[in-house]
Amino acid sequence: MTLLEVSGLVVQYGEHRAVDDVSFQLDRGGSLALVGESGSGKSTIARALVRLIRPSAGSIVFDGVDLTTLSERRLRPLRHRIQMVFQDPYGSLDPHLDAQHIVAEPIAVRGERSRRTRDKRAAELLDQVGLPSSALTRKPHEFSGGQRQRIGIARALASEPDLLVLDEATSALDVSVQAQVLEILATLRAEQGLTYLFISHNLGVVGAVTEQVAVLRSGQIVEQGTTADVLQRPQHEYTQRLRRSALEPALISGRKPREVVRAIAAARAAESAAESAAAS
Ligand SMILES: Nc1ncnc2c1ncn2[C@@H]1O[C@H](COP(=O)(O)OP(=O)(O)O)[C@@H](O)[C@H]1O
Ligand SMILES: [Mg+2]
Fold this sequence. Notes:
binds adenosine-5'-diphosphate, ABC_transp_ATP-bind, ABC transporter family protein, ATP binding, AAA+_ATPase
């Protein structure tokens, strides 16, 4: 069953067409990676999905409802169902609240009146993303980047979304931490039937978490298919270039996240060894 269907989406910033006739669909429980170079329009698509920005043409049909034409009032009860996770949630995590309260907040917004129930649910969510119970009373600055990202994911999950939009959610993390977060995401999807739109400039990381890939260049999708196909047999020259810069994704495709990390780390080490050999 289709959860999200984007058709003929166009988003302009003044005269500049950042998204130019983009169409894709995502089944409930499915996962699509949106991959492309910086500036290709990925975040603009994400912003249009949560209506931080209004498209100039096209439709975004979510669970049968076109979000682009809904009034604010009719959109409001749907908002919680699409949650965004950003590159570094630091800015969006209230520095004065501890992790448990940060995660409990959306549960309160959803109408849960019992503080005990909210705190218990927040503790469960933090546990699900692999944070120890000692994390509950700590504040954002006391966590590492990877841990903060997990809090951001737990907070997004607290809204009970159907769709998670992850915009470069692991890109700022170093390779082994990135892999841990990817592994958590893969587990959550398998266990909870979540649907992911996973945005990344790195074609190498998508094999771990998504079944489908759409490749974006200058606001247009140039190639779309199963992750395995696109990684193994990229058709477009641009995709081939992304693939080369993504550190041997063919090795990575189809593997579990833990193995992905090792493959990425090994490829990076080989590359930097080659670079320093070339420099000397
Ligand atoms: N607020 C904005 N105003 C004007 N141009 C923007 C704005 N945000 C993004 N752009 C431009 O739109 C294009 C797509 O940007 P973006 O969606 O952020 O790409 P990506 O997330 O793939 O890096 C780029 O050319 C960028 O410079
Ligand atoms: Mg972006």
